[in-house]
Amino acid sequence: MKLLFFVLLPITLLLAKTDYSVIVHKPFDAVLFDITQDYDRTLTAVGFSKEYKKSASSATSYTNAFDYLASTSSKYGSQMHIIKVDNAANIIFSKIAKISRFNKAIAVVKTPTNGYFVGGYTLDGSLLVSKLDAHANIIFTKIFGTKNYDRMNNLILLSDGGVLAIGSSTTSRAYSDNMFNSGLGNNDIFLTRFSKDGRKLWSKKYGTGYDDNGIDAVEARDGSIIVIGETSYKNNRDVSMMRVSENGNRIWLKHYQKVGNGDNTMLPKKIIRLKDNNFVILLTQYNHMQKEHIRILKFDLYQNILIDKEIFTTYPSELNDIKEYSNGKFIAVGYVKDTYDTDGLAMILDSNLVMLKQEHYGEENYDQFNAVTIMHNSQAAVAGVHTDNNSQETNMWITKLNQDATLSQVSTDVDTFYEKLNKIFAKEIKLKQIMIKNDLTISLIDNRLYFDVGQYKLTKMQMDFMKKFSNKLLPFLYENRQIVQTFEVNGHTSSEWNNDTNFKTKYLNNEKLSLNRSYEVISNLFHTQPKQIQKWLSKILRGSGYSSSKKIVYTQFEDKKKSRRVSFKIILR
Question: Tell me: the pLDDT tens digits for 96-141?
Fold first, then answer.
């Protein structure tokens, strides 16, 4: 039985002249909490808006004041809201849930069929997980929890296609509860795991005799789950880090306390798994002036702290979400409170969590970024809340940022660019000489275009191909130079180096070889172009050597011939 359904809603779209910024106005407050990119390159975000419901019939009479209050409680309230937008900042659909109890959506994750899992909670304390198809039609909805007050803080996608809900649950001593038999303290961390078809696999509580709150979780590569939460006692709030098995059995638990002067409050906000299978946690730490600032921890699967970084800003700041780029850098979003208002905050961090750049976005009232996702073209899509000038009502907000945290432009249409590239190189694609991916990566796949072992000088066949290739590609890029940010030429190698088994020697020799391959191709491309294109290329061309870090592997075996190559990547503004 479907307990939840969505209906189309009228929306208002405000779009800056060129900046990608979608603002949806609804009566009363509205907010977006999470965002994801769809397989068709559109964006979907979830949150809540507030709906007005018709008054109860005036013919109804009440003898009990509490019955009357109950009848009026559903006049106004929050309902799940899901929005889908395309690359041109057009809203494809804007739908809300219709549930008898008011509710909020806090997380959205993708399914392999381009649909969604959406997680949230009702305002009277029940928990919700809904599975939707690609058009936001409900496949099923699960309502679960205890008889007391429960709240979901996140929903994460697992490698088996199912999802894990995490949050807090008020202690219950009722053995009839469909979720837990008993509580551990005042509030406890709950985890509930569902299969991809909606079967509840298990629900468990964790915590201390104090107040515990589950904030976020992430799955490790071995299937175990890392959970972060907070424990409140006396005047302190500690960060808890816990590892549980795929069945929810606790492996280890660690409490992380603030050391030093100032308030003893630290709040965990987000955890992500990195490409090296370590983890990063965003924390909010309060100083002696009760002002929030940013702390970030990097740790491994065995609870060893690898990096502990504090980021000090002029104004109080907090980060709500963080994602890792393929080059090891990070983008993080949140808010900053300056002298007069609150703005959306975007930060770029290096691989050691050192802040490289920050940008503030918003107007003169309250603005905040709640979630970020990195798109296929290395841009970042952000969801949050925007408040118009001279207004007290918040609105749903979606925007896009470039890799340097600047606002993306609506005119940057990667899909159109991709389609044009495919038309330009239709012959080469048909002959299986090159392959172009949606993220604008161009790979050479003709066996004659790979390098021989230890070689970096271009053969006659390679030079002839590069001349034709560059005479098609580079004039096209130059014509579209207003939206082309970077053109990468990346050299690669296979993993072997003669019969040497020393890792350091192999890596360094292959790094030099990959750089030489990149340079030879850049030199060839550069010399084939007129002076005006050469001058422009000098500003956007970037060569790099990856050694054997991106070797080609099929079914666990390296294809050494295909690993010895160069590849190209176009990055748009």
Answer: 876 667 678 899 999 988 899 999 988 888 899 999 998 888 899 8
Residue with tokens 């109080």: 316
Q: How far apart are CA 384 and CA 398, in angstroms?
A: 7
Q: In the numeric block, which tokens belong to residue 516?
A: 């030489």
CB-based burial, 322-339: b 16+ in 10 Å, e otherwise: bbbbeeeebbbbbbbbee
Q: Which CATH architecture does the domain made up of 414-572 adopt? A: 2-Layer Sandwich (3.30)
User: Are 300 and 307 within 8 A, CB to CB?
Assistant: no
Cβ proximity of 130 and 115 under 8 Å: no
Q: Report the alpha-carbon distance of residue 508 to residue 514 in Å, rounded.
A: 10
Query: How far apart are alpha carbons 32 and 175 in whole angstroms?
Result: 36
Alpha-carbon distance 122 to 101, whole Å? 6
Integer Cα distance of 85 and 210 in angstroms:
43
| Model pLDDT, residue 181 | 45
Domain parsing of the chain, residue ranges: 1-52+76-143+371-411, 145-302, 414-572
Kindly give, in sequence order, each residue whose CB lies less than 8 Å from that of residue 410, ignoring residues fewer than 6 positions away.
15, 18, 19, 20, 88, 89
CA–CA distance from 512 to each of 488, 515, 519, 529, 542 (Å)?
17, 5, 10, 26, 16
Q: Which residues pair with 530 in a beta bridge?
A: none
Reduced to 3 states (helix: H, G, I; strand: E, B; else coil), residue 55 is coil
Q: How far apart are CA 189 and CA 197, in angstroms?
A: 24
What's at 125, amino acid-wise?
Answer: G
Q: Which amino acid is at 431?
A: L
Q: What are phi and psi of 539, to 5 degrees?
A: -95, -25
In the block, tokens 């044009």 appear at 420
Is residue 57 classed as helix, strand or coil in its secondary structure?
coil
Q: What was the pLDDT predicted at 69?
A: 39
Cα separation, 140 vs 133, in Å, equals: 10
Alpha-carbon distances, residue 168 vs 24, 49, 153, 187, 214 (angstroms) = 30, 23, 8, 6, 5
Its CATH class, for the domain covering 145-302, is: mainly beta
What residues contact residue 125 under an 8 Å CB cut-off, 6+ apart?
145, 146, 148, 149, 150, 151, 170
Residues in the chain with pLDDT values less than 50: 1-17, 55-58, 62, 64-75, 178-182, 412
Rounded to whole angstroms, how far apart are CA atoms 423 and 432?
14
The CA distance from 243 to 227, in Å, is 6
Q: What is the pLDDT of residue 487?
A: 94
**Cβ–Cβ under 8 Å, residues 303 and 245:** no
**Structure token digits, residue 313:** 């800003």
DSSP 8-state assignment for residue 459: P
Neighbours of 393 (CB within 10 A): 14
Cα–Cα distance measured from residue 453 to residue 548, given in angstroms and rounded to the nearest whole number: 13
Query: What local confidence, expressed as pLDDT, does residue 453 receive?
Result: 92
| Whole-prediction pTM | 0.68
The 3-state secondary structure of 356-414, one letter per residue: EEEEEECCCCECEEEEEEECCCCCEEEEEEEECCCCCCEEEEEEEECCCCCECECCCCH
Residue range 6-27, pLDDT digits in tens:
444 443 333 334 688 999 888 8
